[in-house]
C-alpha cells in the first residue's frame, strides 16, 4: 500500500493498554508532537462500544488540539492476541474486546488513510529500531519487561512477522523446563519468572514489604536500585532468566543489539549485572559474545513511535496488506 | 551478483565434512545429476594443500564424468566456523584448515562464475526449504541432529543470516541451564544433550552395548527403532530436549514447519514421540500449536541441493556479496 499523503504530515499513533488508551501525533523524525491519554474504561459491565467511544473521543481531541493537517495514516499498538494483519483484537487485559475489529473500525473512521495494527510489544521494538537504541543496526531484538515479557525481532533490517504476526514472543522462550507454570499454559517460560507481578509475588513470599498495597514491578525495581536485599534477589532471579533467554535468542538469530525496556528494567545494574553474568556463562561462541545488551532509549513513548513507523516505513516494518 | 550463464546449466555443489568431501552437479529442479566423493585427507600430518588437492581432483572428476557443460556456479556447504560471506573456513573437525580461503580458491579455480560458501547445516536447511519438506512454506527451521546439532532459519521466505552469517544455531538454544557442559563452552545447550556422540556416551553409561566399537548415533537410533530399552531411553532424552528447543524457537520466530534430519533422526517414533510430547507441554499458545514438525525429506543429498540453491535462488538464500 502506498501512502497517499505527501511526506511531512504526522501519523496518528495509538497505544491500547489495559490501564490507559494513549494517542499521539508523531512526525517522521519520531518526535511526539501531540499527546493525550484516557483511562481504559475497563470496569465490569463496560462493553466493546464504551471502549470504542472512549478511543474515538481521545483521537478527536488529540487531532483537534494539535490544530494541524490531517494525519498521513494511523498506526496502532495493541495488546495481544489478535488476528494479524486483519487487526481483530482480543487483548488479554481488556475483556470487553474479544475479536473486536479495531483495524476495520479505524479504517471506517479514516477513509483513504493507511491503518495498521500490530502487537504492542512489537511496536516498542520497532520504535527502538527506528529511532532508539537499535537504530542503524540490522539485527535487533527489542524487549519489554513489565506486566508481561514481550518483544519484537528485526532481522536483516526488517521486522520479522512470522507465520501469523506472532514472531517476537521472547517471553515464552523456555529458561527452566521444570520451572513455574506460565500464563500461556506452559512451564518455565522467561515470562513466568521475570514478569513484574511474578517478581512481586516471589519477593513478598521472601518477606519484601512494599509501600503501596500489593506492590508493583516498578516499586520493586526502585527498591532493588536502593539495595533492598529481597528486591535485589528478585532482580537477580529475573536477570538470570533474561540472560539465558537472550543467549538462546542470539544463538538462533545472530543478533547485534538487544534493547530492554519496561518497568522492571528500571532496576538498572541489579537487573543488568546478573543478566550479563548469565549471558556470559551461556553465550561462549565469538559471534554471540559480540552482542550488545542495552537499556531501551525511548522510554514510555516507544510504542507510539513504533506504531507511527508502521506507517512511515512500511518496507521495513509492515509487509502485509 | 547476476548469474552469467543461461538457466538450465547445473551447479557444481560441494559438501565439505570431516569424514568425506562430496561433490555433485545439481540441476535447477534440485536433482543430483552427477555425484562423487572421497575420504577427507584428515590424518595428522596432512596439510591444507593436501586437502585442497583432494578436493580439486574430486571436482575435476565429477565435471569430467558428467561430460556436460561448464557449471552455472559453485555452491559450497562447509562445517563452521567460517568468516562469512568471505568464506575463509576453519571447520572444527578439519584441523588442517584454519582460516583456509576456500571461497577465494574456488573463485580462482572457476573465474567468472559465482562462488558461494555457507555453513553446512544452513545448506541442509536451504535444501529442505527449496526442494524438500519445507517447500512453499515461508517460515521454516531446518535441523540436522547428527555429530552436532545445527540448523538454518528461513523467515518470510528468505534465509536469515544474522549479523555474521551465524543465524540458525538451534543446537545452542539452552534447554537446561544447569545441564551438561557443551562443546561451545556453555552449559545445557540442546547440542550438549541431543548430539549423537553425547547420546552414545550416555547410553553406554546406562549399559548399552553397541555392535560396532564405540557405537554411533545411527546405530543407537537403529537400536531404538528395534525397541532396545536403553536406546529408547536415550532417544527420549534427546526428544525431550528437541521439543523444548523447538518450542522456544517457534515462540520467538512463529514458524510453520520444522524439518529434522541427520543420523539421530532416523530413530523415528522413539525420537519424535517424546519430542512432540515435550513440545506440546511447552507450546500452548494457538499460533505455536499450529507448527508442523516433520522428518526431513531429502536425506543425504540435502546439503548438496541446498548448496546449489545458493546459486540458483540468490534472492532467497544469498543476500551478501
TrEMBL record, chains A, B:
One of its GO terms (molecular function) is glucokinase activity. Its EC number is 2.7.1.2. The keyword Transferase applies. This is Glucokinase. Belongs to the ROK (NagC/XylR) family. The keyword Transferase applies. Keywords: Transferase. PROSITE patterns: ROK (PS01125). It comes from the Bacteria. It holds the Pfam family ROK.
Amino acid at each position: 500500500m502506498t501512502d497517499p499523503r505527501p511526506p511531512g504530515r504526522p501519523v496518528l499513533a495509538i497505544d491500547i493498554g489495559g490501564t490507559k488508551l494513549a494517542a499521539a501525533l508523531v512526525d517522521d523524525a519520531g518526535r511526539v508532537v501531540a499527546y493525550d491519554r484516557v483511562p481504559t474504561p475497563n470496569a465490569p459491565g463496560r462493553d466493546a462500544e464504551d471502549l470504542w467511544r472512549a478511543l474515538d473521543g481521545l483521537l478527536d481531541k488529540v487531532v483537534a488540539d494539535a490544530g494541524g493537517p490531517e494525519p498521513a495514516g494511523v498506526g496502532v499498538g495493541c495488546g495481544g492476541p489478535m488476528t494479524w494483519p486483519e487487526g481483530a483484537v482480543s487483548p488479554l487485559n481488556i475483556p470487553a474486546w474479544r475479536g473486536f475489529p479495531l483495524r476495520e473500525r479505524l479504517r471506517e473512521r479514516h477513509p483513504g488513510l493507511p491503518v495498521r495494527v500490530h502487537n504492542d510489544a512489537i511496536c516498542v521494538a520497532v520504535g527502538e529500531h527506528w529511532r532508539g537504541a537499535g537504530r542503524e543496526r540490522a539485527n535487533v531484538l527489542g524487549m519489554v519487561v513489565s506486566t508481561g515479557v514481550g518483544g519484537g525481532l528485526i532481522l536483516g533490517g526488517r521486522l520479522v512477522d512470522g507465520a501469523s504476526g506472532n514472531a517476537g514472543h521472547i517471553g515464552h522462550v523456555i529458561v527452566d523446563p521444570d520451572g513455574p507454570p506460565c500464563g500461556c499454559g506452559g512451564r518455565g517460560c522467561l515470562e513466568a519468572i521475570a514478569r513484574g507481578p511474578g517478581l512481586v509475588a516471589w519477593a513478598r513470599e521472601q518477606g519484601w514489604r512494599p509501600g503501596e498495597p500489593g506492590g508493583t514491578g516498578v516499586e520493586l525495581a526502585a527498591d532493588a536500585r536502593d539495595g533492598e536485599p529481597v528486591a535485589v534477589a528478585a532482580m537477580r532471579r529475573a536477570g538470570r532468566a533474561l540472560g539465558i533467554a537472550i543467549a538462546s535468542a542470539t544463538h538462533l538469530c545472530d543478533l547485534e543489539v538487544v534493547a530492554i525496556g519496561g518497568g522492571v528494567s528500571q532496576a538498572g545494574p541489579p537487573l543488568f549485572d546478573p543478566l550479563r553474568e548469565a549471558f556470559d556463562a551461556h553465550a561462549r561462541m565469538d559471534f554471540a559474545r559480540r552482542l550488545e545488551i542495552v537499556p531501551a532509549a525511548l522510554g514510555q513513548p516507544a510504542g507510539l513511535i513504533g506504531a507511527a513507523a508502521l506507517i512511515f516505513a512500511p518496507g521495513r516494518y509492515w509487509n502485509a496488506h
